[in-house]
Amino acid sequence: MRNIFVNKITDAVASLARETNYYLGEDVCKRISQCREAEDWPPAKDILAKIEENIKTAGEDGIPLCQDSGLACVFLEIGQDVHLIGGSIEDAVNEGVRKGYAEGYLRNSVVSDPLRRSNTNDNTPAAITYDIVPGERVKVIFAPKGFGAENMSRIAMLAPFEGEQGVKDFVATTVFEAGGNPCPPVVVGVGIGGTFDKVTLLAKKALLQPLDLPNMDPYYAEMEEELLKRINGAGTGPQGFGGKTTALAVKILTAPTHIAGLPVAVNLNCHVARHGEIVL
Amino acid sequence: MTVKITGPFTKEKLAFLRTGDDVLLSGEIYTARDAAHKRMTEMLKRGEALPFDIKNAIIYYVGPTPAKPGRPMGSAGPTTSYRMDPYAPMLMEEGQTGMIGKGPRSEEVIEAIKKNKAVYFAAIGGAGALMSKKIIRSETVAFDDLGTEALRRLTVRDMPVKVAVDSFGNDIYKTGRKKYLEEQK
Which CATH class is domain B2-184? Predict the structure, then answer.
C-alpha cells in the first residue's frame, strides 16, 4: 500500500493544464508538417503552414494555442494499491483546474447548468474518468477539449448485420458532414463496441493515442488507414476550403459488446490535439 | 490574391472582394459570440439602441483567453459561426457589413449577406496565438458580466482572414471542395 497526498494530483492537473494549452505533442506537430509537405493544393498548403506558425508563436510568445482552452477532461488511472489521502480526489482535481487555468491565463469556458448557462468563472468542474488498474502508481492524463470539434461528434447504435461496412460508412459520413466546423484537419477518435455509454468513452480515449503508432491489432490498423484515405479523399481539406488534409489520423478503440448490438461513436478533435500525462 | 483593407468597412469597400481572396484587415472591429448576440437581438426586439454603432461594423466571433499583463489580448481565434446564424440576419439589417468566424453558414444568412451586400470572412480555427498578435488594442464596450463573451472593440493590424462568402453569396464551403476535386481529375 502506498499513500499519495491528493495535493500531488492538484499540482499535476494544474501543471498539465498550463503545459498542454501552450505546447502541442511532438507526434501532432510532426504529422501536421508531413501533411503540409504532401498537400499539393496551394490554399490548403498555406493554411497548414499558418497552423505550424501558430504552434511556433504559442510556444515562443507564450500565447495559448487556441482561445478555446477547453473543458478539462481528466483521466485518472489509479493503482489498486494506492491510498489517496488528504482530502477528496474530486475536489483535488477541480482545484488543479482552477489553479492551472488562472495561472495559465486560460479561458473559463464552463457553465454551471446546461440550460440556465451561467459561467462558473474558474473552468470547473472537470469531466473526470476513473480507472482502477494494478500497481501502486497514479497516472494523471489531461486533455482540454475544445467544443468546436466536440459538437460535431456522433454516436450510432448499429445492428450487427451492418458490420464493418456500416461502421466505416458512419465514421466517414460523420467527418464529411462536420465539414469546416470542427477546425479540420481533425483527429478522428472512434469507439466500437461496449454499451451506449462505454462506446463514447472509447472514442474519447482513442483521441489520447499517439498519432505515430498504428493500432496494435492489424485488422484495426488496416481499418484506420483505409478510413483515413477515404476521409481525405472526400476533399473537405483544412478548414473546409478544399484539399486532401481533412484528418491527421483515425484512431480506433474497441470493447466486447452484446450479441444484439454494434455501438459506434466518433469523437472529433481539432488539429490542436492537446493532451499530456504525469505519473505519480 | 491578398488584399489589404482598412476600416471603416463600408459596403462599397467590401464589394470588390471575392470568395477565396485572402484579406489583411486593419482598423476597428467588434467581438461578440453566442451570449452577446442573444442580448443584442433581444435589445433590438425591445426597440432599444445597441451599445455600439453597428453601421459599417465587422463583428468577430471570438471569446478570447484573458490577456497577460502588458498585452492587449490573449489567444483569439474564431469560434464556429453557425451558432450565430439565428441572429446574424437581424444585425445585417441594422447595418453590420462583415462577420469573421469559421465554418459554413445557413442559407438564411447567405441570403441576408446578398441582400445587405455584406461579407463573411473565415479565420483559421485553432490559430488563436497567430490572431492575437494582430490585435493591438482591446476595450470592453458592453456586457462585461459575460466575461470572455463580452462585447469588445478591437484595433487590429493586418489580421489575416479569407473571404468565405462574398457579397454575391458565393460560398467557399461549397465551391472550395468542388474546385479542388475537379483539379484532381
Answer: alpha beta
